[in-house]
Amino acid sequence: MRLALAVLLGLIVAPACAVLPAPVLQALRAADIPATSISVMVQSVDGGPARISHRAKVPMNPASVMKLVTTYAALDSLGPAYSWRTDALMTGRLADGVLDGDLVLRGGGDPALSIEQFWLLLRDLRARGVRDIRGDVITDRSAFAPTRHDPGAFDNEPLAAYNVGPDALLLAHNALRVRLLPQAGGAPALWAEPPLDGVQIDNRVQLVDGECGDWKDSLTAKVLPAPDRSTLTLQITGRFARPCGERIWNIAPLPADEFFARALRAMWAELGGRITGRVRDGATPPNALPLAGIDSPPLAQVIRDINKYSNNVMARQLFLTLGNGAGTPADTATADAAVRAWATRRGLALPSLMLDNGSGLSRSERLSAADMAALLRHAWASSVMPEFMSSMPVLSVDGTLRRRLRNSPASGQAHLKTGSLSDTRSIAGYVLDRNGQRVLMVAWLNHPNAGRAQPVLEALLEWVWAGNRQSFPVTE
After folding, report:
1. Start-end of CATH 3.40.710.10 domains in the chain
2. Percent of the chain predicted with pLDDT > 90
3. In the CATH hierarchy, which top-level class contains the domain 20-81+300-465?
């Protein structure tokens, strides 16, 4: 009787234990997620037999881990020192501080054009003698093809900074940086950067006691325009707990062209200048003369911001930049073609790859764990490996992983990119195991219970770090 029971239990347990490590299976059961919803690939960076290959060739949604495809393709094809340039040009005549003509601001798709960098460009124009602009300011966005972007289409969060669309003249990620600071009284102090011409803030936030928690979820913002939209009121309401201290809330209340125009007018006025005409989109006139320009940080630095902090709009800017070589304004089709052409040149087969915007903020992007592992192996052997690897968050140290597994012996021993959507959790990158061996690991999990899956990926990560060399049968 006991022998029969043992055989029966063996038949039940053996198949489960044969596909994934026991701690991972246990975490999956606790999250009520079947093993058929996860895809895993674990292997030495030098290749050889996989330690785990579970459904590794199944195309799945990798969420923000797709940024590793975009950033490695860019780093390898454009080079670590690549930079974007934003140019200022003029038409007409400049004399005695007066530009009797148009000022042209031509964007190159810079993902990192900050308020500080833009201020330096405007300050440079003032130093070159420009004060009063009698004509228009022409904003040239032609590096990227025009596209209709609905910021609320993905998850009905149109003001969320992560939903900002790409723009060839993107300023400060098109995000207003709202600061909140508790003070005596019924409302926190509240101010915003950059200054926006004709925009005032109506602070209706209540200061409350209690835990800080997910403080952003307690705030809402609404744009209330005047009938002719000459002025706007940004009404901010909600509750803010005193223990939160000073916080920054990034929101995107305006379309990119309006945000840029209002920021330009306000910043130019602060520098003592005046703009008589309109701020309008247009092409750079053939007779425009160069005045000044500013370069972005190098690509190696830009991809650190993209990967460590999972910046979606920067990734989308970079993705479109890859499509600029076609000689026409870049769009997602030319960018997709550029990534595939690069992979072909490098002998990197990615048969499962389905790209949408290159950021992972997508319902349609797909990649298999095996193909991501192939990309990671290729990157490990490339000349840009140091820049690529250092762009990823370090476990328990920085970026999106700074709070993960802080008390684990694996802390500080892995460079990994994570991703999350409502039905997706993912992780991929490099782990230095306890034996001093570098291992690549990839795991996608697509399931309605993905929000409960963090222990699953953490169990896998700790299993990899422990240097386990048990090989599991390949499961497709």
Report:
1. 20-81+300-465
2. 90
3. alpha beta
Q: Which residues of 186-198 are buried (b: 16+ CB within 10 A; e: fewer)?
A: eebebebebebbb
Backbone φ/ψ region at 358: left (φ over 0), alpha (ψ -120 to 50), beta? left
| Residue matched to tokens 């319902």 | 363
Residue 159 one-letter amino acid:
L
| Domain spanning 84-154+257-296, CATH class | alpha beta
**Residues 233-286: tens digit of each pLDDT:** 999 999 999 999 999 999 999 999 999 999 999 999 999 999 999 999 999 999
CA Rg, the chain, in Å?
Answer: 25
| Whole-number Å distance between alpha carbons of 159 and 249 | 11
What is the rounded distance in angstroms from the CA atom of residue 235 to the CA atom of residue 239? 13
Cα–Cα–Cα angle for 342, 346, 349, rounded to 5 degrees: 85
pTM over 0.85: yes
Residue 371 CA to residue 95 CA, distance in Å, equals 60
Query: What is the mean predicted confidence (pLDDT) over 1-22?
Result: 50
Q: Which residues contact 253 (CB under 8 A, 6 or more apart)?
A: 159, 176, 221, 223, 234, 259
Whether residue 286 has a cis bond before it, omega within 30° of 0: no
Residues of the chain with CATH 3.50.80.20: 84-154+257-296
**Measured between alpha carbons, how far is 394 from 431 in angstroms, rounded to an integer?**
10
Strand partners, 279: 137
Q: What is the residue-averaged pLDDT of the chain?
A: 93
Q: What is the pLDDT of residues 421-433, one digit of tens each?
A: 999 999 999 999 9
The band of 475, judged by pLDDT with boundaries at 50, 70 and 90, is confident
